[in-house]
Design a protein that fits this description.
Layout (H helix, E strand, L loop, with lengths): L4 H4 L7 H7 L8 E5 L6 E7 L3 E2 L4 E2 L5 H4 L8 H6 L8 H6 L9 H4 L4 H4 L9 E2 L21
Parallel strand pairs: 2-5
Antiparallel strand pairs: 1-2, 3-4
Length: 149
């Protein structure tokens, strides 16, 4: 039996289709993150980018996201290893670190909804950044890894 591509290829070796299919659909990369200026620590919030369709956990304008949201970070095989805020659960990070995909990942279980059913996505947990004043963003900090914020 042939091993799946994510077990035999590096991120750099994947085709564009394989790369895109690796996204688990958690939408945690679409969350507003705050950086402490003194310590450099990154805090996730329950606030999402204005382009995120929170009901689907998908970007509403994926092809044009960088033009519409200039600070949108587009993941690449190189950037996965450089971005400090990538969630531990992220499929790209897991594969890069040699940890394989989680049981709930659609490429493993065959069900794109399992991630949401298992509570591994932001579905039902987030609010658009447009709904909150900038000075109130700190009130929306959350720890998506289960640790106290």
């Amino acid at each position: 039996m042939t091993k799946p591509f994510w077990e035999t290829k590096t991120l750099q070796e994947m085709t564009p289709e394989e790369w895109e299919s690796l996204c688990d659909g958690c939408a945690k990369c679409c969350l507003l993150k705050l950086e402490d200026e003194d310590s450099g620590d990154i805090a996730y919030t329950r606030l999402h980018c204005r382009l995120l369709d929170a009901d689907l956990c998908r970007c509403s304008d994926y092809e044009n996201r960088k033009a519409k949201v200039p600070d949108c970070v587009i993941l690449t095989p190189k950037s996965v290893s450089e971005i400090r805020w990538m969630p531990q659960s992220c499929a790209y990070r897991r594969v890069h670190e040699g940890r394989g995909l989680a049981d709930w990942h659609h490429l493993v279980c065959g069900d794109r909804n399992r991630i949401h059913e298992q509570g591994q996505s932001v579905m039902g947990e987030v609010v658009s950044e447009d709904a909150v004043l900038e000075e109130d963003q700190i009130d929306w900090i959350i720890d998506w890894n289960g640790n106290p914020p």
